[in-house]
Amino acid sequence: MQAVGKKILLQNRSVARKVNKPLLINKHNQQLVATEPISGDLVGLPIEVLYRIFDYLDAQTILLSLQYVCRRLRDVSEKYDRYALDFENISMVQMWHVCRLVRPESVLSLNLSDGPSTPQGIEFFLSLINIRKFTRLRSLSIHQSADDIFHTILKYVHGCRSVESFSIHFRRASLFGRPDSPDDDYHGPSLTLLASAIAKSNLKTFKTNLPKYQIDCLLWPMNLTLQHLTIGNCTQKQYYMILQRSPRLRTLTLNFIFINRKKTLLFHISHPLSSLALLEQKSSITALKQILSWTPSLVTLKIIGTQSFDTFLLESTQLETFLHNNFNLLSRFHIFIRCSIDEQPFAVDALMASFQTPFWTEDKRWFFTCEPRLPDNCLFYSASMRTMAHPYTLYIGGNSRSNFDEINSNAEMMNTVGKLHFEPTKMQYFNSREKNITGQSFYPNVTILHLKFHDNWPSDGIEFVSSLIDMSRVTALELYYDRKLDSISDSIVHVGKLFKQAVNVSALVVFRYKCLYDRFKWEKLCSVIPHHVKHLSISASDPEDMKTILDNLKHLWSIRFQWPTGIISEDKGTCSREIINDLKMKKQNFKYLHDDFELQIWLSNA
């Protein structure tokens, strides 16, 4: 069942096929309503079982579809009190309907966003409903909002004792400014209010992307309830203070810890932290030894980062001794290191030899792969890192090394791949044997497919991609080009064929790395984009092209115009104003945000 705007469409599912009485159209809101209760297995289930089923459905499905099937399901949906509202990728019309129908006291989780799919979405939400009415809310997530909105929300968090999980992601203040400027800051309220909300609430989980220079302003209210923390980055001293002032902290996730090798810290602490994740660590593992020693009870350690191959090769010989002597409870070690290569050939076999000892393969059963990405880098990763959260780049023909039996473990590893990067235009360099072997390597759980083009599609491109993944599971398709327009034009035909298999794609990205001033027939591209695509991110720099796209894709919920490189800031501002004024003249209801990188538009299309 699917709800789209004001018109609710009931698909041919088992519930709909059980209808014994005719369905009537409610003339006031164009929704389908059954005249009599529907007999069938679903509606006859006990209410507790229906509640469990509802737990696996989004609020839009329950409120905009199921409750209009029959009186029984309507009554159950009205009594249901475990709603999770996710407004990060939703149409403006759907948000309006959900806010009108839901009882705030029945909501346990709320996710609000001013992101690319819903610019100014938080302000729109607050105009529809009073957030103070959410008296049973346990989890609140806020993404990329503005100062005055944050103030309202933080006052709510400060006074609401039911909220246990709070996530707040600040948007960079880079409106037509340099994104790499030292003055580049984050939008947000007074950090004092944020610190007070953390200290005086019952929070068990807190997530933010604040950088280290703002963490100092926040650091660190004593919070005896905080158990799970995610922040952007911090210094060694800040890391120590977090551990010292959060005695019940069990999981900690950071982008990286800034290590000052010229300054030795005399601090020491033994904290019962059980899980630590460093997602963008730039320093060597050796430099982390002191701070890692502060958490001897670690059960899970994840490190994602970059290093030179020579440095990592040297550290690999010491890593086993360090982990064995300091972390008796460590049972999960996840690592993903992108190594830069200065000289050829490089010692892949020597690196993998360090991980062939009984400690890795028998005691811990931790398995790793080193995958050359010539000419200048290679990847070293644990088998567990091919996950939904970490994209995997398909590199056919590479000479990888592993400390496990790849043939027996291949299927299990490929099942964990959720985002696949692939360059179809390189297929011409593979021989038929490689194609056949690759065709057997099936990635059944890929939901995000990223295709990068340097040239025209190969003749058997669609068949080859289809042999790699289950296209019916893909929900986001990303197409990146960096060559001539004729390669883009050639690929449009293939993209159209691809969409015939990718029937569940709701988000599409089309991006060109370089500014191309040649005229391009955007109508041709729009003609192959199906109606189930609701969110479009596209590289365009000409106002007339952007208007053409908007006029031809009336089914979109949101569109994100990304500026190609080579466009000056003044032209970006002029282009944004022209598009915004054009939408206003057409009296279209919309919300928008624009900066030096893109123009985001949230449309009221049904």
Automatic annotation (TrEMBL):
InterPro entries: F-box-like_dom_sf, F-box_dom. It comes from the Eukaryota. Residues 39-90 form the F-box domain. It holds the Pfam family F-box-like. This is F-box domain-containing protein.
